[in-house]
C-alpha cells in the first residue's frame, strides 16, 4: 500500500495488485498492471487504473478517472467529475455533480444522480 501525505502527490503502482491512497490536495495515482485500488480522497485528483481490473474512487472535488484496460469500477464521488472506462466491461458511477461519463469499449454500466 502506498499512501500520500498532505500536498500534491504522485503515486505509481507496479505489476502486482496495489492499493494507492491519496490524501489532501491534488494527487495523481497510476495503478500500473494488476488489479488495483485507487482512492483519491479530497482534492482535485487524477486516477489512472491502467492494466487489470481496477477500482477507482475519486472522493470529493472535481476528479478525472480513467480505467484503462480491464473490467473496472469508477466512482467519481461528489462534485463535477470526468469518468472514462476505456477498454473492458466497466461500471461507471457519476454520483452528484455535473459529470462526464464515457464507458469506452466493452459492455459498460453507467449510472448517475
What's the layout of helices and strands?
Blueprint: E1 2-3, E2 10-12, E3 19-21, E4 28-30, E5 37-39, E6 46-48, E7 55-57, E8 64-66, E9 73-75, E10 82-84, E11 91-93, E12 100-102, E13 109-111
Parallel strand pairs: 1-3, 2-4, 3-5, 4-6, 5-7, 6-8, 7-9, 8-10, 9-11, 10-12, 11-13
Could you walk me through the main structural features you see in this protein, from its secondary elements to its overall organization?
The chain is an all-beta fold. Helix content is 0%, strand content 34%. A 7-stranded parallel β-sheet has the order 1-3-5-7-9-11-13, with no helix packed on it. It starts with a strand and ends with a strand. The mean pLDDT is 95.
Number of strands: 13
Stretches where pLDDT is under 50 for at least 5 consecutive residues are none
Biggest sheet, spatial arrangement of strands: 1-3-5-7-9-11-13
One letter per element, helices H and strands E, the order comes to EEEEEEEEEEEEE
Shape by Cα distribution: flat
Strand content: 25-35%
Sketch the major β-sheet: 7 strands, parallel
What class, by secondary structure content?
mainly beta
What is the helix content? under 10%
Helix count, DSSP H or I runs of 4 or more residues: 0
The termini sit apart by 31 Å
Describe the structure using short key phrases:
mainly beta, six-stranded parallel sheet, 113 residues, seven-stranded parallel sheet, flat
Amino acid at each position: 500500500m502506498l499512501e500520500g501525505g498532505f500536498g500534491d502527490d504522485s503515486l505509481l503502482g507496479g505489476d502486482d495488485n496495489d492499493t494507492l491512497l491519496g490524501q489532501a490536495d491534488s494527487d495523481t495515482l497510476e495503478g500500473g498492471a494488476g488489479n488495483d485500488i485507487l482512492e483519491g480522497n479530497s482534492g482535485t485528483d487524477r486516477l489512472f487504473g491502467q492494466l487489470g481490473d481496477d477500482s477507482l474512487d475519486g472522493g470529493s472535488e472535481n476528479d478525472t478517472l480513467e480505467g484503462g484496460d480491464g473490467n473496472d469500477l469508477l466512482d467519481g464521488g461528489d462534485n463535477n467529475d470526468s469518468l472514462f472506462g476505456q477498454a473492458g466491461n466497466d461500471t461507471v458511477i457519476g454520483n452528484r455533480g455535473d459529470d462526464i461519463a464515457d464507458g469506452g469499449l466493452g459492455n459498460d454500466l453507467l449510472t448517475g444522480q
